[in-house]
Each structure stands twice: as C-alpha cells, then as structure tokens.
Amino acid sequence: MDAVRIYGGNCLSGQTKIQGSKNASLPILAATLLIDGTCEIVNCPDISDVYHMLRLLESLGCRVCRKADVIRIDTCRVAECDMPADSVGVMRSSIMLLGALLARMGEVAMEYPGGCVIGKRPIDLHLCALRRMGVEIMEGPEEFCARACRLHGAVHELPFVSVGVTENLILAAVLAEGETVIHPAAREPEIQALCEFLVSAGGKINGAGTDRLVIEGVKKLCPVRFRVPADRIVAGTYLTACMCAGGRVFLEDAPCCQMESVIACAENMGVHLRPSPEGLLVEGRACRRLGENLVTAVYPGFPTDLQSPFMAVMALSGQGGQIEETVFENRFRIVPELVKMGADIRVKGNCACVCAGTRLCNTIVEAKELRGGAALIVAALAAEGTGIVTNRHYIDRGYEDITRSLRELGADVELA
Ligand code: EPZ
Q1: What is the per-residue pLDDT across 48-88, written as a single tens digit (0 to 9) for each?
Q2: Is the CB of 32 under 6 A from ligand 1?
Q3: 69, 72, 125: which is closest to 95 by C-alpha?
Q4: How far is the CA of 121 from the centre of ligand 1 (A)?
Q5: Catalytic site residue 116?
C-alpha cells in the first residue's frame, strides 16, 4: 500500500543522519545546464523530486550517472529544449529549468509546472522578470514557449520575495550580457548554496544571503564538484517528532545555524536543545504553549515548510497555539485530518487556532501534500493506538526514507 503504519505512544531515543537538502539540490541540478562538461553533485537526497529532475535533464540530452551519494551530470550533448510533461507537471521546481535552458539553448517549450497544492502557485513573476531580460514568451493554455537570442542583464525590483523567482533569475543572469540586480532577493540557505555552486564554477555573484543580489554575467562556467548542504526542513521535521513523542534524539548534520527561528520556537515550547557543528541534540517533549503566534515568513523568519509539523506539535502536546501562514494561501490542509484524530482546530483566513487540552487517537488519515503528510506521521507518533497515513508518495517527494529515519530515532513505524 502507498502508506505508513505508526504505532503511537513510544518515546523516541536514537540518532539519524539528516539527508541533503531537496530545495538546494533541485536548483543546483538545473544549474548544471549552464556548464558545458561534467559536474559532480554530492549528498543529493534519494527522493522522487530529484529523480524527476534527473529525468528532465536526461530528456534534454544530459548523461546522468548516480553512484552512492555522487551524481555525475555530463551536459555536453544537450540538444533538446522540450521536456516530458509527466516530469514537468509533477513538481514545482521544473520551473527552475526555464532560466537555465534560456541561458544554454536560447529557447524552451514546457508545460506549466506542478507541485504541492498549497496555493495557486502562479509563475507570473517568473515570466514578467524574464521578459525584462530580453525573453520573448508565448503563453498557451497548456504550455508556454520562451525564446531569447541573447539574455541581457536587468534591474529587478520585485513586488515581494520569491525563492523560485530569485533562483530562476540567478540562472538566467549568470551568463547574460551585463549586470543583473535582484531586490528583494530571497535569503534562504538554498539560494546561498546555489550561489556558492555557481561562484565555484566561475560565476560572479555578490550579496548571497542578503536581500540584494548583484550578478555580473560571464562568458563561461567550468565543471565543478559540489556538496549539497543538509536539509533544514527535514531536520526540523524530526525535531517536531521528538517534540510530540518525547525522548532524546540526536539529528546528525542538522544545519543548526540555518534553523535559528525554529530552534527558538521549540525552546519556547519547553524542549531542551543543544545545537553543535555536528548536529542537534533534542530532549523532552513540548510542554508549554507558545507565548505568541507562530507566524511564517521568508528566511530568516519561521519557515512555512515547518508550519504543518508545528501545528501537529501544538495539537499533540495539548498546549494548543495560534498559527498565521503568510507565504501560501492554502497551507492548512492537514487540519481536517488532525480533526479526524480528535484535534479542535479553527481556521479563519490565513490563521489557525489550535485549541488546548485535546487527546488525539490514531486512525486512518490522508496526506494531501509533502509537508502536511510528514506532519501527520509526526502527530501519529504521539497519538493513542495505531495510525495509518495514506498517499505516502507525497512524503517520498522530500524525505529519503521517513520510516527508516524514524525507526533510527526509536519510533515504531513501518511501510503499509
Ligand atoms: C520554494 O517554493 C520551495 N520549493 C517551497 O518548498 C517553499 O515553501 C517556498 O519556496 C517558500 O520558502 C522549492 O524550493 C522547490 P515562492 P516556491 O516563489 O519557489 C507566490 C517544500 O515543501 N508567487 O517563494 O514556489 C507563491 O504563490 C516546498 O519543499 C507568485 O505569486 O515559493 C507564494 O504564495 C513547498 N508568483 C509566494 O509567492 C510567482 O511567479 C512565495 O512562493 C511566484 C511565486
């Protein structure tokens, strides 16, 4: 079955190594198209979104070879600019190929990207910004075509921060003619990793990690070997597993310096944390209601991708809490499933109020998207009885093997 079975009520004890970052790997894999030759990307997670990105690269003519945690990508024979719809439509990050292919080939034809149904997720900002760099775009009902004889730099004053738009513009700008300014640029660690990758290949990018990026186009980039950083969202998910179930766990390689807002929130909820360069030690379960609302924001604010797991903590700890989701307009999709388990959660607009004092019982619940699915497994660890979370394929998009990792932390879970 495409599901996970969880035997709730066990305290956790153990350690697990945090996988490479999905949201850093995907733009970096797309960026290899900018480099004529063979790049080696190390520590890419073995997840379905990476599989789909590699399929897209192969469909374009790249030769891809994965050995252990090293992916070799040879782009010398890139010739196509048309990608298989089933891989484009299944994930949002296929849009990352737009900027890279325009820079490499000068034209792209592709379906509109898919991805988790956590909001409308339009690409209007992507297309508008690329037009400013000399790209001609013809939008059809199912797909769009983009063409640029020669990409040129531009000053982008964006209406709001977008991770994907920042990434796409970096990929379009790094080989473009002249200078490109992106403001406000996203500051996420995944953007910083992309910039580090491109600078190591010879790109000229200033301001990584700030809200203003300045990119000077260069003629050519050279092949490199690059290690993807650990995944801060996966680390935060397993932090919430301990916050729900209690116990003592060590999250090896957890990028603590990228998790300050999450660590502060967990400590405010009564959990003892010991961050170190080696990883994150977590002790105890959440035993306090958060003093103020949990408000998601762009980095370095609280990450929207951990909003659902923290909602599970608020419900399972019995402490309750208030959540305000400011990034996506439909990211409370786990609420009906947590209510099936006995939670009392009221949603009004982009705010959710988790009532205190409820005891949750496991039942059959449905994952509807990636992070909400992981949050339901986290919730089931601490609820009474045996639970089933269906649609595991959503969770496999971003977690290498969530049942293996949770078993390493002492949870009683299995594939169902
Ligand atoms: C990236 O999505 C991540 N995905 C998301 O992680 C993450 O939640 C999000 O950034 C915010 O941090 C990847 O990196 C593959 P945005 P992205 O553009 O780039 C609106 C996960 O679980 N918008 O910063 O799509 C958009 O609708 C995933 O790993 C437009 O309106 O996010 C959203 O409301 C989920 N027009 C807001 O901006 C556009 O052209 C922020 O989205 C583009 C975006």
Answers
A1: 999 999 998 998 999 999 998 899 999 999 876 566 666 66
A2: no
A3: 125
A4: 7
A5: yes
How many angstroms separate the alpha carbon of residue 219 from the centre of ligand 1?
Answer: 30
Whether 301 and 289 have beta carbons less than 8 Å apart is answered as: no
Q: Does the C-beta of 394 come closer than 6 Å to ligand 1?
A: no
**DSSP code at position 132:** T
Neighbours of 142 (CB within 10 A): 8
Residues 14-46: tens digit of each pLDDT: 999 999 999 999 999 999 999 999 999 999 999
Closest residue to atom 16 of ligand 1, CA basis: 162
- CA distances from residue 258 to 16, 261, 277, 291 in whole angstroms, order as listed: 18, 8, 11, 23
In this prediction, residues 352-376 reach a mean pLDDT of: 96
Residue nearest to atom 38 of ligand 1 (CA): 162
Q: Which of 39, 116, 256, 265 is catalytic?
A: 116
For ligand 1, whether the C-beta of 27 sits within 6 Å is no
Query: What's the rounded Cα separation, in Å, for the pair 406 and 307?
Result: 20
- End-to-end Cα separation, the chain, in angstroms: 5
Q: Best mutation site among 49, 123, 124, 163 for ligand 1, i.e. most ligand atoms within 8 A of its Cβ?
A: 163
Whether ligand 1 lies within 6 angstroms of the CB of 331 is answered as: no
Is the distance from the beta carbon of residue 48 to the nearest atom of ligand 1 less than 6 Å? no
Q: Could you give the C-alpha distances from 261 to 26, 162, 372, in angstroms and in order?
A: 24, 19, 20
Distance CA 118, CA 368 (A): 9
Peptide bond into 336 cis (omega under 30): no
In contact, 167 and 97? CB cutoff 8 Å: no
Q: What is the distance in A from the centroid of ligand 1 to the CA of 327?
A: 8
The number of beta carbons lying within 10 Å of the beta carbon of residue 274 is: 11
Pairwise CA distance, residues 166 & 29, whole Å = 16
SS3 percent helix, strand, coil of the chain, rounded to 5, is 35, 25, 40
pTM for the structure as a whole:
0.96
- Span 146-175, average pLDDT: 96
Query: In this model, does residue 93 exceed pLDDT 70?
Result: no
User: Helix, strand or coil for residue 72?
Assistant: strand
Decide if pLDDT at 187 tops 70.
yes
